Amino acid sequence: MIHYKYMILTYGCQMNESDSQRMGTQLEILGYEKTLVLDEADVILLNTCCVRESAENKIYGKIGEIKHLKQAKHELIFGIVGCMAQKEGEALFKRAPHIDFVLGTNNIHELNNIINDIKLSRHHMTKLAPADGGIPQEVLPPSGNSLSVWIPIMYGCNNFCTYCIVPYVRGREHSRPMHSIIEETKKYSADGVKEITLLGQNVNSYGKDMPEGDFADLLYELDKIDGIERIRYMTSHPRDLNDKVIETIKNSRHICTHFHLPVQYGSDRILKAMNRGYSLEYYRKLAEKVRKAIPECSLTTDLIIGFPGETDADFEQMLTFLRQMRYDAAYTFLYSKRSGTPAATMDNQVSDSVKKNRLNQLMSIQNEISLQINEAFINKTVQVMVEGPSRTDASVYTGRTSTNKIVLWQKNGTEKAGDILNVRITHPQTWILKGEAQYAKEK
Ligand code: SAH
Ligand code: SF4
Ligand code: F3S
C-alpha cells in the first residue's frame, strides 16, 4: 500500500504552530503520513506569517523553490494557509500559478474538503472567510505523544496597535468556551502531556465576550487538573493584566512564573503613536507589582525599533528604560511597514541604516543585562522540566525552568522527557544556563 505524505512548513507565531498541528491531525485523518523531507511530500502546506516584510520575503522565496517540485511531480498538492493567505488571497495565484489552493485563517477546518476538491478538479481554489467573520470552528486537537502542546484559548485581536497587521488578518477577538478548553486539557493530561501553553494575541482579555469567566478563572480551573505540571500562556497585553491574574498565578500550583509583557517601546510619545493604551509610568508600576508579588519571576518583552517619527531623544529614553527594567530577555524587531495599517502612512519613516544602528546599540545593552541576571544563578539550584537531548549533543540534555530559562547539563542519570530535575548552575551564559544535574534530589 502506498502511503501518501504531507509536510507543513510553519512561519510566524505560536498560533500558527498550533494551527499547523491541528491541520496535521486533519491530514492524518485523510490518510496522509507526516514527512520532514520536502521532496517526499504529496501535500505541501506553507502556513504563513505577514507580521513583517522579512517574513513575507522568506515565504515568497520558499514558494518559488517549490515550483520545481511541482513540475517534477504534477500530482503534488501545494497550499498556502495562514496570515499571508488571508491578506493576499487570490493575488497569490497571479504571483505563483503553481499554488493549488489558498485557505484563510478562519478556514482551517475546511482543509480536508479543499484537498478532496482539488483531487477531483485540479483548479485554483480559495476558501477565505472574512477575517472577522466569526469564530473559527473548533478543530481536532493534535494526536500523539507530545510532552508539550499549544492550546488556542482565543482568536483575533481588537487592539489595532498602529503598526500591526494581525487584527486585519486574524479578525476580532473571540474566546473559546471555557469548558471546551478544560475538556481538551483533561484529554491531554490523560495522554501524558506535561506542559500546556495557552495561546491568544491578548490572553488577558479572554472571556470578555462570554459569561463563563475571565482569564484568571480559566487559569484557576486549569491549575486544578492533575498531571499537567506546567501552564504557560502568551501573549499578555500590559494594559489588561490585572491583580486577579497576578494573584491566581501566585497562588497556583503549576502556572509558570514567566511574564512576557511586551512593552514595544520605551517613550510615552511613541507608545501613544503606537496606540498601546498605557504609559511608561503605568507599565513600570505593573512590572513592580508583578515582581513584588512573585519575586522569583522572570520578565521578558518585545521591542520595536524605528517606529515612524522615532528620534534620538526617544531612543535614548528607551535605553534608559531598558536599564531600569532589567528584563531577563528582550525580543527586538525592526519596524516593518505594513500597508493598510495607520503607521504605514505616518510621516518621518526611519531609514534602515538608522534602525539597524539603534538595534545594535540596544541589543548590546540588553545582552549585558541578560548575562548579569543569569550570572546571579551561579551555584544556585534550579528546577527544570526535562525536554530531552540537546540538538548538537545527545549526551547533553536540555530543559526549562518555570521562568522559561533554558538549562543544559551532561546526562548521567535516568532522566527522561517530562521529568522534573534539579540542576545546579555552574556556567551561566547570556541565553542559556549550563549546570550539573542533582540526581540525589530527583523526584
Ligand atoms: N499580540 C502580541 C504579539 C503579536 S506580533 C502582542 O501584542 O504582544 C509579535 C510581535 O511582533 C509584537 O509584539 C511586535 O513587537 C512585533 N511586531 C508587530 N508588528 C510589527 C511591525 N509592523 N514591525 C515590526 N515588528 C512588529
Ligand atoms: Fe498586534 Fe497590538 Fe494586537 Fe498584539 S495587541 S496582535 S501587537 S494589534
Ligand atoms: Fe504572523 Fe499571523 Fe502570528 S501575521 S505573528 S502568524 S498571527
TrEMBL record:
Binding site for [4Fe-4S] cluster 1: 13, 49, 83
EC top class named in words: transferase
Domain Radical SAM core: residue ranges: 143-372
Primary location: cytoplasm
UniProt catalytic activity: N(6)-dimethylallyladenosine(37) in tRNA + (sulfur carrier)-SH + AH2 + 2 S-adenosyl-L-methionine = 2-methylsulfanyl-N(6)-dimethylallyladenosine(37) in tRNA + (sulfur carrier)-H + 5'-deoxyadenosine + L-methionine + A + S-adenosyl-L-homocysteine + 2 H(+)
Amino-acid positions noted as binding [4Fe-4S] cluster 2 in the UniProt annotation, renumbered to this chain: 157, 161, 164
Domain MTTase N-terminal, chain residue ranges per copy: 4-120
Keywords recorded for this protein, A-Z: 4Fe-4S, Cytoplasm, Iron, Iron-sulfur, Metal-binding, S-adenosyl-L-methionine, Transferase, tRNA processing
Co-factor remark: Binds 2 [4Fe-4S] clusters. One cluster is coordinated with 3 cysteines and an exchangeable S-adenosyl-L-methionine.
Pfam families documented for this protein: Radical_SAM (PF04055), UPF0004 (PF00919)
TRAM domain ranges (all copies): 375-439
Intracellular or extracellular location(s): Cytoplasm
Cross-referenced SUPFAM superfamilies: Radical SAM enzymes (SSF102114)
EC numbers for this chain: 2.8.4.3
GO terms, molecular function: tRNA-2-methylthio-N(6)-dimethylallyladenosine(37) synthase activity
Cofactor names: [4Fe-4S] cluster
Quaternary context: Monomer.
Family indicated by similarity: Belongs to the methylthiotransferase family. MiaB subfamily.
Protein's job: Catalyzes the methylthiolation of N6-(dimethylallyl)adenosine (i(6)A), leading to the formation of 2-methylthio-N6-(dimethylallyl)adenosine (ms(2)i(6)A) at position 37 in tRNAs that read codons beginning with uridine.
Protein name, per record: tRNA-2-methylthio-N(6)-dimethylallyladenosine synthase
Organism: Pectinatus haikarae
Encoding gene per record: miaB
